[in-house]
Amino acid sequence: MRSHLLSQSTSTPAGEPAxxxxxVLGGSLAGLLAARVLADHLAEVIVVDRDDLDGxxxxxxxxxxxxxxxxxxxxxxxxAIEAIVPGFTAAVLARGGLQADVVARSRWLMSDNLLSRGxxxxxxxxxxxxxxxxxxxxxxxxxxxxxxxxxHDIVGLRPDASxxxxxxxxxxxxxxxxxxxxxxxxxVRDLPATLVIDATGRGSRAPxxxxxxxxxxxxxxxxxxxxxxxTRQFAARDGVLDDLDADIVGTRPGSGRAGVALRQEDxxxxxxxxxxxxxxxxxxxxxxxxxxxxxxxxxxxxxxERCEPLGPAVRFAYPASRWRHWExxxxxxxxxxxxGDAVCSFNPIYGQGMSSAAHQALVLRQLLRSHGTHALATRxxxxxxxxxxxxxxxxxxxxxxxxxxPAKPLPERLVDHYLDRLLEVATEDHVVTVAFSxxxxxxxxxxxxxxxxxxWRVLGPGSGGxxxxxxxxxxxxxxxxxxxxxxxxxxxxxxxxxxxxxxxRIPALGAGAGVLDPADG
Length: 521
Fold this sequence. Notes:
The protein is of the alpha/beta class.
């Protein structure tokens, strides 16, 4: 496969139009899904990545350092992937993945409020990042006009003669061990392209490539996350959390600690412990268990203490969420589309990255179907900004309530108070829990939480007793596992990060914003 691709990768003679070829930079989830979408509109699509793409994916990829950790595929994400690569869900289930009601089979402690459990109609998919990516890769590779070119570095972009549009991608084979320099001894090759999609993630070098070509770099918004987390695998054991497939402890007020346990294929649990703006969970088993014991629900520590550990712990650090505002550029290189974490990367503790990438790929398909590749760079930048607005608000709204962060404006603080009460009511009101879960799973827009029907349940006279009981339970949990973060504000509930999306900062979000097009399944 590789030799065939390189034989096609010589430069196009001056004045000769490139073939109708798309080149996707990055072979992770966003890149693979984008490639499958492009395959319906271009004669040929090539996916380039520095990792080996020839074989089946059976272990975490080196190019995805977060791969061994707990990954959440939200309901919206699994729906979007299935719409782009039909058969994905069945393939994951055949290899041991699980489907379950994300409310009935999960325990959610959000803002230190234990949400009600019961049927919700929201069916999620539980599988490791490796399995999800492996099955997407296999299905995409089966497309007759998609080729995977692994083992290559991306050197840069080649513009056309006018300098206004991308005409190709410069690539180079990975250097052998011991070579000096990023491309030492290698000949840089040219892959002509009609369209280039950058799915190289948070580390995308597109801003630098564009600056070299005389184009402006996008503005960036960053919000500190300062999160460190450690993950261990455990063999599932009968009698340990048999009624749960997921146990989620959101970051606690004043402590910065969180945890998540997810059932995965091969009868195992993936358990991740995290801490923000403070220390770091220990990697040794005894320390890992001791840290888990400080969480306010007993499920995660029960797994850590009663189930057999599988392999060593792995750690990861994430400094800040970052949104590159490609949509704000007034001048851009046409034919270059940014997608996935190359647009916006979120604090991973909220489990939104894969689902956001899948939704962007689905929107890309809608754009291509409606207008083809014409002005796709501009249209996709605007559309993807709308896609990431909600998960960005979910992640950064919560992180911005930590001590030391800039004060929120009054409208956001007012909405925060409403969301605090909503989560308290959700401890007993299952209608409220399901409505909140739909937003968390990116199936409904945040303003849906302000509907008159829901607001009455949250603020009406019947909610007072529920709120008092929720606050009492929260106080009991806080007293049992108190470990205040230095400089922390007194314990009061923290929202799920929704206040920005509900308030004045994202006026584009309407009641139906961000919901799957029915045509896309």
